[in-house]
Specification:
The chain has about 575 residues and is of the alpha/beta class. Helix content is about 30%, strand content about 15%. Strand 12, helix 14 and strand 13 (about 480-485) form a beta-alpha-beta unit.
């Protein structure tokens, strides 16, 4: 076991941290803004009769075709080894049409899961990537969840956001682009609420929107565009600047290509052993900054000053062998962590923090595969006006050979048929002004892995600082950001990545209890929600840590087990 460091100061610096407790931990009452109303608590309900009869009950919903209503027995779904109660799965589609450009059939397909015993709440689940699939509407969150919205009794909706298949070919259809960006949410929300009203005899008392990655982007967009429709917003790893992040990731791939030893394998630019080397160097410099040498860097902000890639990682004097980085590698890696820039040197996306989670297996995918296989198609076909032809589109060639300035122009482009740019239809308008959400009593929780390699936690921090500046210098009375040290994109990495974020959000919205400390757990061997193989072997399998609201940092109190959240305080 590692031991507390006697050399650590208690400097209260930060950049984000925090989110969620398996035991639904909360903080103090939200009394700092008496002008913000407290919304009333939801009251439960239930539906009588047979689930299959709900297809008739829901017939005639505007612009909607109900395709099935099927009973899902108690225990047919489980989460963390626990049975999900009996519920009705309703499937359907909205606004079915033929695309005028490609002749393809489009519709907003969905499933709505309605618990027999309902808690009075609605959860709209935002899904990830390019959407295109109707995934199981559970409203899950955190790595290997032990609970989710459906398990807690919410009515939960998921959709494909208006197109079939997780490929970028839908980008040829102007309306499909807009549905993917934001309009599907605007169409689905009233339909789902009316369906709930018909089934339970009342509309949902409280409505929540949540998701991670692109789902987190959907949540951020809902907070800005559909403020009156949702009382609580849960945004994980929010790619709210997704077009910029995609171009930045391609730019990073172009940089990596200059130092790759195998031109056909981008990962040879920065191998797994070399990432492990840098991760250990970050730990050596930064582990003790929070008062404990425990394999977690809690004080991310202080670490960026304490760690120096050029100084703290050996420079190769000969061939690369995993124990050093070449001078050219260091230059490339440092530039990527500093943030993507145009050819003129203007930075257009955020920096990335150095963190021990760099050793995580997911980092390699996002750094070396995603730019060529995912971001290229998104930028070239979904975000560009007019789009590239999907037939014969070569993602790697497009990504590696298109100048960054041209890619940047693509995501701002419009045409007669494609009247909104990607930076318009994909991002929340004026995201630093959420006064409408605040003034009606809505609340927002954002969580983000510090080692997320595709959407930077620094971008989320920058947004939150702007949000605070626009709301009297402190947005914490209605919005809080929590970063998860070591965690990669939405989950994984050497981290405590298992947490319940929805319970604290409901408590905040409906009881006025702000989340000041939320406990997260590691998923070592035997975890009922699934094992995270990247949990270090010298950690307890069930290690816990508090996640603290930005700008606070979890610091060791000076006594107690390093495996327990109770030994750490948020300062």
């Amino acid at each position: 076991m590692r031991h507390p460091s006697p050399h650590c100061t208690a400097r209260a610096s930060a950049l984000l941290l925090a989110v969620s407790s398996l035991a639904a931990c909360g903080g103090g009452n939200d009394t700092r803004a008496p002008d913000i109303p407290r919304l009333s608590a939801a009251t439960p309900g239930s539906y009588g009769g047979e689930c299959e009869a709900l297809a008739t009950t829901l017939a005639g919903l505007p612009n909607t075709t109900i395709t099935a209503a099927t009973t899902v027995a108690a225990g047919a779904l489980t989460v963390g080894g626990q049975a999900v109660a009996e519920h009705c799965r309703v499937t359907g589609r909205m606004f079915e049409r033929i695309g005028p450009i490609d002749g393809a059939t489009y519709a907003i397909s969905f499933e709505l899961r309605l618990p027999k015993a309902w808690n009075g709440r609605f959860f709209h689940q935002g899904n990830g990537g390019l959407d295109g699939n109707v995934v199981t509407a559970t409203g899950s969150f955190g790595g290997g969840p032990l609970t989710h919205a459906l398990h807690q009794g919410f009515a939960v909706l998921s959709s494909d956001a208006g197109h079939a298949g997780p490929t970028p070919s839908f980008g040829r259809d102007p309306q499909a682009r807009l549905d993917y960006g934001y309009q599907a949410v605007g169409k689905l929300t009233p339909m789902a609420k009316e369906a709930i009203r018909r089934v339970y005899g009342k509309a949902p008392d409280r409505s929540y929107f949540g998701g991670c990655s692109n789902g987190g982007r959907h949540a951020m967009v809902a907070a800005a565009r559909y403020t009156q429709d949702y009382d609580g917003i849960l945004a994980g790893a929010p790619g709210f600047n997704l077009p910029l992040a995609a171009v930045a990731n391609i730019w990073g791939a172009q940089r990596y290509a200059t130092v790759a030893t195998d031109p056909t394998n981008l990962s040879t630019a920065f191998t797994a052993s070399e990432r492990e080397l840098v991760s250990q160097a970050v730990l050596d410099r930064c582990d003790a900054l929070d008062g404990a040498e425990d394999g977690i860097v809690q004080d991310t902000t202080a670490c960026q000053s304490a760690f120096d890639l050029m100084r703290d990682v050996p420079t190769c004097s000969g061939a690369r062998d995993g124990t050093c980085l070449s001078a050219d590698q260091k230059t490339v890696i440092a530039s990527i962590f500093e943030g993507a820039r145009t050819s003129g040197g203007t930075r257009f996306y955020a920096s990335f923090p150095y963190d021990p989670g760099l050793r995580g297996s997911g980092v390699g995918f996002w750094e070396f595969t995603a730019p060529l296989a995912l971001d290229s198609g998104a930028v070239g076909i979904v975000f560009k006006a007019p789009p590239e032809n999907p037939i014969g589109f070569n993602g790697p060639a497009f990504a590696l050979n298109t100048p960054v300035d041209t890619l940047y122009e693509f995501i701002h482009s419009t045409s007669l048929s494609y009247t909104e740019s990607a930076m318009s239809f994909m991002t929340p308008p004026n995201p630093s002004d959420l006064s409408t959400l605040r003034n009606r009593g809505g609340k927002m929780i954002v969580y983000h892995g510090v080692s997320d390699a595709i959407f930077s936690v620094d971008d989320t921090t920058r947004w939150y600082e702007a949000l605070s500046a626009n709301h009297g210098g402190d947005a914490s009375n209605f919005a809080r950001v929590f970063r998860v040290p070591g965690m990669g994109h939405c989950s994984g990495g050497p981290s405590t990545d298992q947490f319940d974020v929805i319970t604290p959000l409901v408590q905040w919205v409906e009881q006025g209890v702000a989340p000041d400390r939320i406990v997260a757990s590691a998923r070592g061997a035997g975890n009922p929600g699934g094992t995270n193989t990247e949990v270090p072997g010298d950690w307890a399998a069930d290690r816990t840590r508090p996640l603290c609201p930005y700008p606070k940092v979890a610091r060791y109190s000076g006594s107690g087990s390093l495996e327990s959240a109770e030994s750490f305080v948020c300062q």
